[in-house]
Specification:
It is a single chain. The chain is built from three helices and four strands, in the order E-H-E-E-H-H-E. The protein is globular and about 35 Å long. By secondary structure, the protein is α+β, with helices and mostly antiparallel strands. The termini are close together. It has one domain: Alpha-Beta Plaits (2-Layer Sandwich). It has a four-stranded antiparallel beta sheet with strand order 2-3-1-4. This is Stress responsive A/B Barrel Domain protein. Pfam families: Dabb. It comes from Microbacterium laevaniformans.
């Protein structure tokens, strides 16, 4: 198994509707090959701003690498780059 966790810090000027659209776009990636478990939520802790949490498990690192190259993921990452900065953590589970 391979874990991939991303924290998207949404820019302050982004509307609530755009945040909701981003969450739905990210959630739609759950159907991509290699995904074992996929969860995307808006953090309940907003002290440092709005943060979208992506918590994913893949079959293995190869599955994750194929996921990253999928055009749907590339499109989602491009869209997120306009509304957020992010930090990710990846590790073998």
């Amino acid at each position: 198994m391979f874990r991939h966790i991303v924290l998207f810090r949404v820019h302050d000027d982004v509307s609530h509707d755009r945040v909701e659209e981003a969450i739905e776009r990210l959630r739609s990636l759950a159907s991509l090959p290699g995904v074992v478990d996929w969860r995307v939520e808006l953090s309940l802790d907003a002290r440092k701003g709005r943060v979208i949490v992506e918590d994913a498990t893949f079959v293995d690192q190869g599955g994750f690498e194929r996921f990253r190259l999928d055009p749907r993921h590339v499109h989602a990452a491009e869209a997120m780059s306009h509304i957020a900065d992010w930090w990710n953590g990846d590790y073998a589970a």
